[in-house]
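Appendix B. Chain record.
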Amino acid sequence: MRSRIVDLWSRARYVVLTHMHGDHVPLPNPNPFQLGIGHLPRNDSVTVVIPCAQWASPRARLRLESIVNAFKDRVARVEPGSRIGLVQVLGPYRHGVAESAVYPVFVDSNEPLLHLSDTELLVEEVVSDVRRLRPSIVVTSGPPIYRYAHDRSVVSSMLAKARRILEAIARYSDKVVVDHHLLRCVEGYSWLKEVRRELSGVTTAAEYMGRKPLFLEAWRSALYIAFPVGNEWFKHSYREVIDAFKPVYSEVLRRIECLEDLSEERFLELLKDIRSSLEAPRLFRGS
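Structure tokens predicted for this chain:
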């Protein structure tokens, strides 16, 4: 995924950073799995759009400044409501259940797109933007119910609010792509499938692209069952693990297209079959 991002970055006209969380920005001090500023090309064709720092936390300010130092005159600091080219920055809105701020983005093109980022279908104020802008496509995260699995009352409350906001968003747009936090657990996708029986145009990112959903995060237990590794593998052998998994991942993508239905149980069977058919990497021998 990091390679894909780097490739797209090199071909983009605008890159908009909606907030400074580590899974949304290139970092000055990335761990082995994150996108680092050093991975990115310094091409002159891309403008990096960032929100003004006055709403940022101290950590976010450091990340902002590192981006400014890296991309210099290619950085455009924008106020909420301002426009640069086809891109209009909105907000700031609350990051769902978190305290930090998020800046949704409206792209005013032939097929207008509104990216609500990490508002998690929990921020009612975004509905007025959808009603006013009438985008063809809305992209949004869903509620992070995986963090509250121990408290069913909180999960129920979140999903009820998310459904009300999703219904309102779907009323004023043609297509709503719901992804990110919600799909970090199986229950999130089950809820989304139930909701969209009554709401037309609601989908996931994978399905929008014509691909089958593959819940590598929600189904991580199946990955560890099929390919057990020690708990501290990342401290000394992460590159070996990544290299070992590349053929596994390629084989998963190839084989899932032939399956009518993909559940966690089928996924585990698939992984075990792949493990037995591939030459076992040294990392997994004897596991």
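Further analysis of this model is presented in Appendix C.
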